Amino acid sequence: MTTGQTPLTMQDAILTLQNYWSANGCMITQPLNTEVGAGTANPSTALRVIGPEPWSVAYVEPSVRPDDSRYGENPNRLQTHTQFQVILKPDPGNPQELYLGSLAALGVDLTAHDIRFVEDNWASPALGAWGLGWEVWLDGMEITQFTYFQQVGGVSLNPVSVEITYGLERILMNLQGVSHFKDIAYAPGITYGEVFGQSEYEMSRYYLDDADVDTNHKLFEAYAAEARRLLDLELPVPAYLYVLKCSHTFNVLDARGAISTTERAKAFSLMRGLTHESAKLWAARRTALGHPLGVAPEAAPAVRAPLPTVPGTETLLFEIGLEELPYADVVATTDAVRESVTAKLAATRLRHGQINVMATPRRVVVTVERVEPREADTEKTVRGPKAAAAYKDGAPTQALLGFARSQGVEPDAVRTVTVKGTDYVAVTREEPGRPATEVLSDLLSEVVSNLRASRNMRWNDPALSFSRPVRWLLALLGRTPLPVTVSALASGTTTRVHRTAADPVVQVTTAEGYSHFLKMHGIVLEREVRYDAVVRGAERLAAEVGGRIDAAGQAGLIDEITDILEFPHPVRGSFEERYLDLPASVLTTVMRKHQRYLPVLDGDRLMPHFITFANGACDDDVVRTGNEAVLRARYEDAAFFWRADLKVAPADFRARLDQLTFEDRLGTVADRATRIAALALELAAHAGLAEDTAATVRRAGELAKFDLASQMVVEFSGLAGVMAEEYARRAGEPEEVARALAEMELPRSAGGALPASDAGAVLSLADRFDLVTGMFVIGAVPTGSSDPFGVRRAAIGLVNVLRAVPATAAVSVSDGLRAAAARYTAQGIEVPAERLTEAAELIARRYEQQLTDAGHEHRLVQAVRVWADRPATGDRVLAALEQHVASDEFGALVAALQRVVRILPADELADVDRSLLTAPAEHRLAEATEAVRGVLQGREDDLTALVGASAPLVEAIDAFFNEVLVMDLDLGIRAARLALLSDVARLTSRTLDWSAL
């Protein structure tokens, strides 16, 4: 697992890292003398990254996390673990390469192991800090946090600092080949467990069982008061140290389960505010001191080299080199760059062939075929003043002279042009096309400058901002280097391949065949090829142990794997069969969510195998062993949660929900569960469910959301509902109740599985009506791509349930929203009527979109939108509409009704005297209307019945318009005739929106 040398002890590893980073410009300092949850909280990071002074430092930091207490039983999780913290300020430009060098110094064989940078967007609410970067994985185990700090203490950072936080225990376990932290060789002849095992157990006892709650509450208040006092004295360092004491005390109380929802919100707000003040005061103090460490220089803008000439048609190759993109940004950036390049080239006169854009996590590659050497020449005519104003008595006027001067020509060079019958003077001149190198250099620079993602960060570049740092540009036009400059970046003729390659930077001599060139260096540029390699590789390894991969069911995970790798290399691992005693959903969630493993199945039964993927060639045995150790530790954690949760009754978990915040303005999760329970019973009554089903709804409602307080769901939120079913069943609840608790969480996605039981369907609706209503009440509505509470998903879910579950047919959207609003009102929360209208419109749009996406004709979808309040009815009406829409009878009915609707005024008619309707055509129309009304009584959704009964009505409408003058000069007669037509319109308006047809 190492380079062949004897693995380092832990103390040797610390010394090695200190020597390595010292040699790379870091000052070595000592740990803080108070508890911190991470090396980030040490003032050497949290304060020193603020302001313009350069600061590169490395130090060991014992990091105390009470909530990670496991009595020393879990192989990977400790209440006090050892971090090695590195801060590089400013970003040196090659921090990933420096980091990999440190792993090599520790004895990690970079060519044997699978080392990956996996997206992690870090934030600390208590510190008011955030940054973007990665978890670094060593054979599947997270060993390092790697972050570009963007903000600390609410203060935006300039320059940006790079934080590298090593988890030493995990690294040493891998290096030494041990499976438990207790077995790490800390020093020659001394194990980690021998040194720290006792304190790990006793501190776990303290944090989880014995810490005095009242004492720690008092300590929190005292520490906060002292921090406040020190800030008033303008002493940022001691003030911040007392904030850290607050933070640790809060974590102790949290581990004891002694923090209520209100206390949590208040404590975070208090600590964030104190940290923000400390940070601002620190920055002001350093400014007042004149920045004793100096000011970090800003990178200078790159200077573009002279543009070459290219004599003939060539292929353009342009590569934007990046540090590892988040997987979701790979496809999004591909599309954005393709759109940008296509639009910008279209705005030029440069002729070219096909544009191709492909991407991996580390590169976006643009190729443009058959690029001409220069733009086509063109003529440009500039229009000047009117000819009448340009000459006087045949001589040029000042207007003409001024125009000629502005165009750099003599007055006799102008000519006359006619525009819309008016003569103007004009100048026409040749505008030669620009060389392709000039066009492309400017264009590609703009493409890079305009790069944006859903979340953007800064690094050491003075102007660029993107999802992750842009580190190199490669630009060739055929074999000719194409100079492109963007801020501090200048293009070259090299690319970067795998960092572990013998030559990680390689020369590129031609734009032709670049995909094949990369493949020779172990990089697959084509996304579809990578995807296929993932599927085929997993299927092959699964088949070797008699298993299979659910490629369709795991399509989303396969997409993610495809976009976090440049060369998918499959490795099969195994785990002990004893873990199969845990629920399969727990095991597969751990595999998929935390490790990006594909489970191996025998039919539908989980096998004790998994498939992982390394990024390129590696030592399969080394990578397998490492990943198996990671999964073993994860499963031990899951088993710990499972055992602990089974000791708690569902009702006791339900009682703990008042410690969890749903949303500050809407109350706790307990409040939400209570609302759902009451709402579900009301919807069950609306639906007319049988008594035994209603009893299931009642009991499941009493336990609603209880599993959110379980340790398993706190750790694996995606198991909500799944664990409710497991725990309820094992607690002796009826099978119907257990199933309904699980189905309450369905569907989990737009096309996800729906509740199979009527009780589950009603609870699912109650859950989603409560969420949608609550979010509209507080104004947390979806905007653009932002939907943090999943309101759209909830709206889609309730539409899907209403469309698919017959038992809910009597429940309308308006029923659900009004009932949900009543629950909020009972809680003392005001619900404006317009908010419910807006929520209903959102749901209607989701229904409309579903019908459109299913391929139904737009005008027919618009016609049945009147049934968005009852989507299942809308589906039936749409099916009938599609059956009748081409028939002559229906066409005649549509024409007649639209004739009626067009003539009606927008306002309601009042004080109508129907006795004025005496003409035969008027009586026939009234009689035909009543006849159809009788047919549709209670059957307003029966379009077939309406069409079948429509012939007399259509004849009566036609005769009415032919025989009487609707807009009679007598206003009374006019009003009566319009009222009759209004009866016809109202009669059919509930069936369809006829105007849409």
Question: What's the N-to-C terminus distance?
Answer: 71 Å
* Major sheet attributes: 8 strands, mixed
Overall outline:
globular
Specify the structural class: alpha+beta
Q: How many whole angstroms does the radius of gyration measure?
A: 36 Å
**Average residue-wise pLDDT:** 92
Q: State the total count of DSSP E strands.
A: 29
Tell me the strand percentage band: 15-25%
In the predicted model, the low-confidence regions spanning at least 5 consecutive residues are none
Number of helices: 34
The share of residues in helices is: 40-55%
Please describe what this structure looks like.
- 47% of the residues lie in helices and 17% in strands.
- Strands 1, 2, 3, 4, 5, 6, 7 and 8 form an 8-stranded mixed beta sheet that branches. The chain has a 5-stranded antiparallel beta sheet with strand order 12-13-11-19-20, covered by helices on one side. A 3-stranded antiparallel beta sheet has the order 14-18-17.
- The model has no long low-confidence stretch (mean pLDDT 92).
- By secondary structure, it is α+β, with helices and mostly antiparallel strands.
- It contains 34 helices and 29 strands.
- It is globular and about 110 Å long.
- Helix 9 (327-346) packs antiparallel against helix 12 (436-449) and helix 14 packs across helix 15.
Strand and helix map with partners:
Elements: H1 10-23, E1 27-28, H2 43-46, E2 55-64, E3 80-89, H3 95-106, E4 115-124, E5 129-138, E6 141-152, E7 155-156, E8 162-167, H4 168-176, E9 185-187, E10 190-191, H5 192-210, H6 213-232, H7 236-255, H8 261-288, E11 314-322, H9 327-346, E12 355-360, E13 363-371, E14 378-386, H10 387-390, E15 391-392, E16 395-396, H11 398-407, E17 415-419, E18 422-431, H12 436-449, E19 470-477, E20 480-481, E21 485-486, E22 489-490, E23 494-496, E24 505-507, H13 514-520, H14 527-543, H15 555-562, E25 568-574, H16 584-595, E26 598-602, E27 605-615, H17 620-646, H18 650-655, E28 661-663, E29 667-668, H19 669-687, H20 691-702, H21 711-715, H22 722-730, H23 735-743, H24 758-777, H25 791-804, H26 813-826, H27 833-853, H28 858-864, H29 871-884, H30 888-903, H31 920-936, H32 943-948, H33 950-963, H34 971-989
Helix pairs in contact: 6-7, 6-8, 7-8, 9-12, 14-15, 16-17, 19-20, 19-24, 19-26, 20-23, 20-24, 22-23, 23-24, 24-25, 24-26, 24-27, 25-27, 25-29, 26-27, 28-29, 30-33, 30-34, 31-33, 31-34
